[in-house]
Automatic annotation (TrEMBL):
The chain crosses the membrane at residues 12-28. Keywords: Membrane, Transmembrane, Transmembrane helix. It holds the Pfam family Methyltransf_22. PANTHER family: METHYLTRANSFERASE-LIKE PROTEIN 24, METHYLTRANSFERASE-LIKE PROTEIN 24-RELATED. This is Methyltransferase domain-containing protein. Residues 97-262 form the Methyltransferase domain.
Amino acid sequence: MPYIFQRHPRYVVVFAVFVICSFIYLTTPSSPNVDPSSFVGLPGDPALPSRVQHAERAYQKVVEKRQELIKKHGPTPSQVVMFPPDQNPWPAYTVWDFFPAAFNCPHELERIGSLGDGGKWTCGVSRIAEKPDCIIYSFGTDWESAWEASVLENTEHCEIWGYDHQTKSFGRQVSHASFSNKHRTHFTSHVQLGPIDKHASGDDPKLYKLDTLMNKNGHTFIDILKVDIEGYEFDTLKAIVRPYIQNGEPLPFGQLQIELHVWSKKFSDFLTWWEMLEAAGLRPVMMEPNLVYVNYNRQSGAELAEYTFLNIKGDNIFTSDAVRAYVPSEDTDEPKVQFIRHGPRE
């Protein structure tokens, strides 16, 4: 034994610990270095769940205030007028004051597309910017596709399925020959989203339920669903949403952009419809009255409004990181796991 160990026995213990630790370090298989780029989609966002939870707590406070406002101007829903007349006592509200966009978008909230008619307030476009299986449905284009064109320009893989019962193609922003992302679009004319399937040879327009079109296209989930179907949205959304509530399942879309047309609607009916959306997990993050309609229909009220909703139930790219998946590098023999919401796919 070396002289130093005889003079200082405690060094033996230190040396032994060093030898043992070195042996463990050298013989333990090292973990592979994981390149962050091998994760498809956005980097992890550990604060996302807390932001969603905070937004939900704030939203529920607004729901309570809605009931207080109903009592003030009702006191029952059936007694609340959608748009009070211009006469004494001039109650200071419209129907939209009961349904504010009070859920805070947990990402950036951006005006996508043109200013004015055609553009849409969209929550978290960055979340789908590199998403390989990004699916978007757009119903009711009416020659205006500024939003669709901008979404395609701001994402790498999103594909848009468009439908309209009158127009034969997307608007000029997408259909123009110079538009470079046209290959990621699909359009079907003489088709309208509806509460039932009614598309026999003699039917025009042809009505399709949402799940029918999704099955036809081979889709199980839609990242953004855009709907402008001129008043038919109430029966149609009811037909879409109710089965999922009854089965306790999350809706098959992550974000809903919809124009509401409350022509001849009663407040109590609208309230029931809205509460159904809430029960399904839909939360409004943005609302914009259609002032173009107000300008050209001065005798009518502000009966049209654009809403953007997030779906907070289930896992979707806007409210959860659970959809991210590890994709091995090209030089490994491991099978790839694609970024598919409902599990791996070849």
